[in-house]
């Protein structure tokens, strides 16, 4: 793993002044000019040996139903139509969408469950491709959160806080570990094109109060993967290079007078943009992939902006050592028509998700790439609205939900945590959002309590004020 030079502030360890330091190291490469808290503590960017070098997070926005995918509940199926027992609900709050219902009838999954692989992982028949990589996965059925609505829920999973304004996980990793390449961003975001559902806003992959250079860069599925990256017609590469050099000189003069760190970010972004003019077209061109690749990921991978195409692009970005790759696939919010809706969602995501794990494994990359699949919360075991066993909906459920992880130091073929017979409450080995984040940072060589940033007089961190590494799921 490549690391940034140790430097704890605006005075360089070489005894140079600010402008001299910038000139010595290429005039504003951002990550080289500034150090971070981790490097000040350890000098090498890590607190302990890392198991993973990079993360690919397949975020399923809207709240996939754990009851219909991973958390097999035969008793719930048997009691379909009966009332949710008070002993199970325990007076816990519901959303405004179902909290005023006179009845909360239980509804089991209409899909068939079976065990897969030598590990015997439980999955429904909605996930035939994912079932084939069961022995590479760790399924966590005991995730829980305090967030009960989408905005706070997605924000919590991405930033460690339900309130907007905090840095995203990818931004924290960029801040803590720097970049592993010079020609691509350390944090890239991909959103499935043309999907409805809850809105996904840029602050979810933003840098919050960290320097802006750590924010995720969104790639779009068209000829301009990044808006305004390419030079206007008539502007040559040599001319742009000279323009940036002169602009850098002006910024450095202003930086010397004002000490504004945003100028360093601006210099770094201009330099990165210039390098990306060559690197982005090369990495986003899927046309050079062999037919066998599209057979693996599915024909949808030939269509830019689909989830399958984004999974394939994620593998290509991982090959170029992009540190954090975030995919968003909206549309899992089935308050009604769940059987049909979740079937379509799985058809769009199942093959490509499994293909990504298989592809990384075949290339020898899974061992140091952490793949994560999951949403912001789960779904209720009772029917939202009028009961219909064949065409029903489920409300938001924060008290237990499922995710899976693979590679990057995660124990393969393992199922962690249990819920009650109704998939309503965690009964054993609960994993809170902060525990989830602490574990990811641990796999990347970071002590989550030591990766901090002082802002407005307080030292903030991704895991806020608590969180524990979930050691049983580590290989």
Describe it.
Helix 8 packs antiparallel against helix 9 and helix 11 runs parallel beside helix 12. The chain has one domain: Alkaline Phosphatase, subunit A. It starts with 17 loop residues before the first helix and ends in a 15-residue tail after the last strand. The N terminus is likely disordered. The protein is 31% helix and 14% strand. The chain is of the alpha/beta class and 475 residues long. The strands form 5 sheets. Strands 1, 4, 5, 6, 7, 8, 11, 12 and 15 form a 9-stranded mixed beta sheet that branches. It is globular and about 75 Å long. Strand 2 and strand 3 form a beta hairpin. The chain has 13 helices and 17 strands.
The second-level CATH architecture is 3-Layer(aba) Sandwich
Oligomer: single chain
CATH classification, class level: Alpha Beta
Give the % helix: 25-40%
Order of helices and strands: HHEHHEEHEHHEEHHHHEHEEEEEEEEHEE
What is the name of the CATH topology? Alkaline Phosphatase, subunit A
Number of helices: 13
Largest sheet: 9 strands, mixed
Distance between the termini: 20 Å
Look at the helices and sheets and give the structural class. Answer: alpha/beta
